Amino acid sequence: MTAKNNTEVIIDGNKYTLSGYESEEYLQKVSSYINGKIAEYRKDPAYKKMNFDAQKAMLELNIADEYFKTKKRADELEAEVGDKDRQLYDIKHELVTERLNNQENEKEIIRLKNEANEYQKEIIRLETRMTDMDNSY
């Protein structure tokens, strides 16, 4: 098991110690994202007029909204990947089946060529016999 990391981050000017199994870089990236969101919303005049609790709730709701939309898109993409995997499996299966059919057809072609050669030999034998019979009369 990976050791827990304790990482100090600054969120909205306040210092926090985050503890988790993720890397320090990841924890810094998360706090940077939150700081970016706070800065983005602070540009909105309506956000500035809200009290602290409303601002906090607005930020939380918007981050949750982004999360659920991103999760939905990730699930859709995962389903697409699953569909593509199934299609690829089907295509590979068809390819194997066609290769087997092709091998069988090649064997049949060889068998028929051999049979045709045997018939050609038989025709030559029969023609030779007929010529020999015609010459003997």
UniProtKB/TrEMBL annotation:
Single biological process term from Gene Ontology: cell division
Gene3D superfamilies: 6.10.250.790
Protein name, UniProt field: Cell division protein ZapA
InterPro entries: Bac_CellDiv_Activator, Cell_div_ZapA-like, Cell_div_ZapA-like_sf
Coiled coil: 95-136
Alphabetic keyword roster: Cell cycle, Cell division, Coiled coil
Species assigned in the record: Parasporobacterium paucivorans DSM 15970
Entries under SUPFAM superfamilies matching the protein: Cell division protein ZapA-like
